[in-house]
Amino acid sequence: MFQISRLEDANVKILPENLGKPRLEAITQEIESLYIDKVIKDLGLVITLYEIVSIEGGTVYPGEGSAHFKVEFRVVVFRPFVGEIIEGTLKKADKTGLYVDIGFFSDIFVPEHLMQEPSVFDEDEQLWVWMYEDAKMFMDLEEPVRIRIQGIKFPDQPRTSDELVGRTALEGATPDGTFAPMVVMADINADGLGLISWWKQ
């Protein structure tokens, strides 16, 4: 689920008001403000700074007052691998599928064709239902759910709000109308997957 990645930023800018701090402290704070809780395309969601590897420079340009550094550092990144089983909470359902939240990341989508078969969308309840033999297994919201990772997508940033409206969940559209720069696709189509309550003895 997590991995350590090495990054380089050739222009970490320390403002004049922070130059009185120890260099490592000032640079650490700036790196954290720039990268923590941000998605790096084709890499993943940065969770925390692991270590500063090297610092070079400290150039102050005329008329500016800030110091500029080249910094190599390592970060802990959330990027689940295909086939990984994780648990979360079922937050929303619509005709296209299910939306799952794992606390620090909420852009996990289970499309309808990757649910337990057969599953149908109940228009009255606005919930998905697994038709298991003679029973109706409702996928109630706010319930713990176990999912299997199928892939990760890094959609391109939409140029306009109208372009975002026309997108699907796997293209970065979220239920609240914002853009998701990283979307995790998952399935629940196997024994032990889906609502955790289904599989309790």
TrEMBL record:
Gene Ontology CC: one annotated term: RNA polymerase III complex
GO MF term list: DNA binding; DNA-directed RNA polymerase activity
Pfam families recorded: RNA_pol_Rbc25 (PF08292), SHS2_Rpb7-N (PF03876)
Keyword Transcription attributed: yes
Listed Gene3D superfamilies: Nucleic acid-binding proteins, RNA polymerase Rpb7-like, N-terminal domain
Gene Ontology annotations of biological process type: transcription initiation at RNA polymerase III promoter
Locations listed in the record: Nucleus
RNA polymerase Rpb7-like N-terminal domain mapped to chain residues: 11-65
Xref: SUPFAM superfamilies: N-terminal, heterodimerisation domain of RBP7 (RpoE), Nucleic acid-binding proteins
Stored PANTHER family: DNA-DIRECTED RNA POLYMERASE II, III, DNA-DIRECTED RNA POLYMERASE III SUBUNIT RPC8
Protein name (record): DNA-directed RNA polymerase
Record organism: Micromonas commoda (strain RCC299 / NOUM17 / CCMP2709) (Picoplanktonic green alga)
